[in-house]
């Protein structure tokens, strides 16, 4: 019986926090925990034994950071570390019945492109090396944990699925707002991870079990596979130079029992949890049996931060990024002018599209390269899911692989050859797929024949393991000018198909009017008819107000727009809204939208009327303030925040080229030093803070990661620094942060220090001597403004 078989009958228990136990065992501050697998294996063995004796069924190897980037300064290879770790864990479990070893894989420690510098393929290779080593050493399970970036998680899952046959468990870390650091919510996580074929998914780290209850509810709502939870023992506290957590084993277990009664089946612990916690939660669940895991039937496409569900109400798939019949778009693609494409994407998002179709097929360009580039650029600017539209199988496969989220593939049809090529891609990458009701005989003229083709497609998809809810049927609209008798057959096919299968219907309705006068009248009428027949998602132009009028009014009449809120919002404020449109040439608007290529031209134009300082203060900073406010309100997420910051940086560099002296004068004053403390090699948060602060005109002295106290003190003295920002992600390096703060405060009494990192809280930050706690880049800006305003007031 496999570990997955056991989940049907009983709860399973992971171990607790390896880091917490290593600290208790005397791990030196900043020392790489993974090296102990070779230098002190007996310490790791004893920790595993304690957890196994406490009731853990699964122990995780001491390999959380065992990747080539984190180990590059050690004397051991990834394979040596992982082999030793698996060997020690297996030795600890030897002779014990039904005990398993999970290869522990944590985040790489740097953001993937376009948010960071690490490519998707490089991330994949890093994870592949870990997985091959773990499989060779004899691990029973692959545990991908503490992920905050769904894109990095996708790379890890693909590496696991393509290079092993082991069960794959994965967890992400969620914040109080129900999203990960990069903006992924629970529904998106489930859609992506489940689509990629993981065996178990869940949540770990970041919060205590009570704070995670709402996120757990969301996971259970959407997931059709087992859920696991490894919460922290509450929030870290600080007393007498010691870190402790504020939830004891009994309180922890009470919250875990609530989760078990809801349907969670696997438990363990993260930061602060010890064998006592595992023993307590095991005892608390002794009299319970796990709930049966039920299949959910949601149809959703996602970006990295937004899940769009079909069937709840009409969804609009924007059709404008398609060069067919669009001269300007063709020119833009040939000229590699992606700002034009991005404008199209933004305009469709703002006008009501909820998914964007991306088609870049032209005979004289490299379609695969352009598709990948376009998807990457568009996903960095808009938060909408995308529909990958191509007749080229290689393009579909490459695009689905690098896509950040769960995309729609457009399309497959009833031809055997088409299904054999497209379905493996859909299955592997967990996509939705648009299925056209045509086969070797062409487009049928009757609704019954459309149903027959749909049946062939759906049944074939099932044989590949693709569920009905991942299929979007397009019954194909024929033109009234040439096929008038068949126009209604398309509509009649909609209820026939939906009555037989749990699929959703998409349709490009505007084809109906081709070749006839007053196309607007025919298009709007036919769209209304199609919606009444059960159309779930028209593929249409959301910038066409006549079509949007039909959709908005239909939602009211079909009871989809509750209390007519959206309808009233749209049509009750027409006069007011028409006055707030900004010019496309406004640098502020360009920064907000993230149009990097446009920023240079707009900056040069403004230099004809304004001096550099005025441009920064009147255009750039107000734009970044708006972006920051939208980020705070969760109207945009990290990709859009970074894109706007990079756009502002492009404008700033242009201004600097033309007015070096004035810009340097502006930047000479306010300096901020940033560093990730000694022993910690995670610099994701610090790098984002740096990017945003630079765009507000501050001069940043970035010392990098794993920085000694001596180097920080030396830089503060040399550069005459007033504000220092320190970062730490690991509990094992917070002591280094405290020591650095104490020395800085002693040597430079005037200095102000802000700190940030996943292991910190405001209370914790102040206890170790910091002046400010910065939860994100937006807060860092507020802190900088406060510090340097106070400095000016003193002067």
Description:
The model is unreliable at 575-584 (pLDDT under 50). The radius of gyration is 28 Å and the shape is globular. The protein has an 8-stranded parallel sheet. Strands 13-14-15-16-17-18-19-20 form an 8-stranded parallel beta barrel, surrounded by 6 helices. A 5-stranded parallel sheet has the order 22-21-23-24-25, sandwiched between helices. Strand 14 (355-358), helix 14 and strand 15 form a beta-alpha-beta unit. Helix content is 48%, strand content 14%.
Q: Estimate the strand proportion.
A: 5-15%
Q: What structural category arises from helix and sheet content?
A: alpha/beta
Shape: globular
**Count of beta strands:** 25
Based on the model shown, name its key terms.
single chain; 795 residues; alpha/beta; eight-stranded parallel beta sheet; eight-stranded parallel barrel; 25 strands
Layout: helices, strands, pairs:
Blueprint: H1 3-6, E1 12-13, H2 18-24, H3 36-39, H4 41-53, E2 58-60, H5 78-93, E3 100-105, H6 120-137, E4 141-147, H7 150-163, E5 168-172, H8 186-195, E6 200-204, H9 213-222, E7 227-231, E8 236-239, E9 242-245, H10 249-262, E10 266-269, H11 275-284, E11 300-302, E12 307-309, E13 317-321, H12 327-334, H13 338-351, E14 355-358, H14 367-379, E15 386-389, H15 393-402, E16 408-413, H16 416-429, E17 432-436, H17 447-463, E18 471-474, H18 487-500, E19 504-507, H19 519-533, E20 537-540, H20 545-557, H21 565-571, H22 574-577, H23 587-593, H24 596-606, H25 612-632, H26 638-658, H27 660-667, E21 671-676, H28 684-695, E22 699-702, H29 709-719, E23 723-727, H30 734-747, E24 752-756, H31 762-767, E25 772-773, H32 777-794
Parallel strand pairs: 1-10, 2-3, 3-4, 4-5, 5-6, 6-7, 7-10, 13-14, 13-20, 14-15, 15-16, 16-17, 17-18, 18-19, 19-20, 21-22, 21-23, 23-24, 24-25
Antiparallel strand pairs: 8-9, 11-12
Helix pairs in contact: 4-5, 5-6, 6-7, 8-9, 10-11, 14-15, 15-16, 17-18, 19-20, 23-25, 23-26, 24-26, 25-26, 26-27, 26-28, 28-32, 29-30
């Amino acid at each position: 019986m496999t570990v997955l078989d056991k989940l049907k009958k009983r709860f399973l228990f992971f171990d607790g926090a390896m880091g917490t136990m290593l600290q208790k065992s005397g791990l030196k501050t900043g020392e790489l925990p993974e090296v102990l697998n070779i230098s002190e294996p007996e310490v790791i063995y004893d920790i595993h034994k304690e957890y196994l004796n406490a009731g853990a069924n699964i122990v995780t190897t001491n390999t959380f950071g065992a990747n080539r980037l984190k180990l590059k300064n050690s004397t051991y290879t990834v394979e040596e570390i992982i082999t030793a770790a698996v060997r020690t864990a297996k030795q600890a479990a030897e002779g014990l019945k039904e005990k398993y070893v999970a290869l522990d894989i944590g985040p790489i420690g740097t953001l993937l492109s376009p948010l960071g510098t690490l490519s998707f393929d490089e991330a994949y290779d890093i994870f592949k090396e870990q997985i091959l080593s773990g499989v060779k050493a004899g691990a029973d399970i692959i545990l991908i944990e503490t992920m905050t970036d769904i894109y990095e998680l996708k790379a890890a899952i693909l590496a696991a699925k393509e290079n092993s046959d082991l069960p794959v468990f994965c967890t992400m870390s969620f914040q109080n707002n129900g999203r990960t650091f990069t903006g992924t919510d629970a529904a998106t996580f489930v859609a992506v991870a489940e689509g990629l074929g993981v065996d178990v998914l869940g949540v770990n780290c970041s919060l205590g079990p009570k704070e995670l209850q709402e996120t757990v509810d969301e996971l259970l709502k959407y997931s059709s596979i087992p859920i696991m939870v490894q919460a922290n023992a509450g929030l870290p506290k600080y007393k007498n130079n010691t870190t402790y957590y504020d939830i004891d084993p009994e309180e922890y277990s009470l919250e875990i029992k609530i989760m078990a009664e809801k349907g969670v089946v696997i438990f363990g612990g993260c930061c602060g949890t010890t064998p006592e916690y595992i023993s307590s939660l095991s005892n608390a669940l002794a009299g319970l049996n796990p709930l049966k895991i039920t299949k959910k039937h949601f149809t959703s496409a996602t970006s990295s931060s937004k899940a769009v569900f079909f069937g709840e109400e009409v969804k609009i798939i924007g059709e404008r990024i398609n060069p067919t019949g669009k001269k300007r778009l063709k020119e833009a693609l040939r000229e590699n002018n992606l700002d034009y494409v991005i404008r199209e994407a933004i305009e469709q998002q703002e006008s009501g599209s909820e998914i964007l179709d991306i088609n870049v097929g032209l005979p004289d360009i490299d379609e695969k390269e352009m598709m990948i580039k376009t998807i990457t650029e568009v996903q960095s600017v808009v938060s909408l899911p995308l529909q990958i539209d191509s007749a080229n199988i290689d393009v579909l496969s490459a695009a689905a692989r690098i896509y950040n989220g769960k995309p729609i593939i457009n399309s497959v049809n009833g031809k055997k050859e088409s299904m054999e090529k497209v379905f493996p891609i859909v299955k592997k990458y967990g996509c939705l797929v648009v299925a056209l009701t045509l086969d070797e005989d062409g487009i049928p003229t009757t609704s019954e024949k459309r149903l027959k083709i749909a049946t062939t497609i759906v049944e074939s998809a099932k044989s590949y393991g693709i569920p009905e809810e991942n299929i979007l049927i397009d019954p194909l609209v024929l033109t009234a000018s040439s096929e008038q008798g068949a126009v209604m057959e398309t509509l009649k096919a909609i209820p026939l198909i939906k009555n037989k299968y749990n699929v959703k219907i998409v349709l490009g309705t505007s084809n109906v009017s081709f070749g006839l006068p007053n196309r607007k009248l025919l298009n709007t009428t036919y769209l209304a008819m199609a919606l009444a027949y059960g159309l779930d998602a028209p593929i249409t132009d959301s910038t066409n107000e006549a079509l949007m009028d039909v959709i908005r009014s239909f939602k009211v009449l079909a009871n989809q727009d509750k209390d007519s809120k959206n309808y009233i919002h749209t049509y009750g404020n027409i006069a007011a809204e028409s006055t707030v449109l900004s010019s496309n040439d406004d640098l502020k608007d360009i920064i907000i939208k993230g149009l990097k290529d446009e920023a240079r031209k707009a900056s040069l134009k403004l230099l004809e009327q304004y001096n550099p300082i005025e441009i920064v203060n009147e255009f750039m900073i107000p734009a970044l303030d708006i972006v920051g406010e939208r980020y705070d309100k969760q109207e945009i997420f990290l990709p859009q925040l970074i894109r706007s910051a990079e756009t502002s940086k492009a404008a700033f560099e242009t201004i600097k080229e033309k007015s070096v002296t004035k810009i340097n004068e502006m930047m000479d004053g306010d300096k901020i030093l940033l560093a990730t403390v000694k022993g910690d090699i995670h610099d994701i948060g610090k790098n984002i803070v740096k990017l945003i602060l630079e765009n507000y005109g501050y001069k940043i002295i970035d010392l990098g990661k794993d920085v000694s106290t001596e180097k920080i003190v030396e830089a503060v003295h040399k550069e005459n620094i007033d504000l220092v920002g320190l970062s730490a992600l690991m509990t094992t390096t917070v002591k280094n942060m405290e020591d650095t703060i104490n020395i800085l405060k002693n040597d430079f009494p005037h200095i102000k220090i802000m700190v940030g990192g996943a292991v910190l809280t405001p209370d914790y930050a102040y206890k170790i001597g910091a002046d400010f706690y910065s939860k994100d880049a937006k807060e860092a800006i507020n802190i900088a403004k406060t510090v340097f305003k106070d400095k000016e007031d003193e002067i």
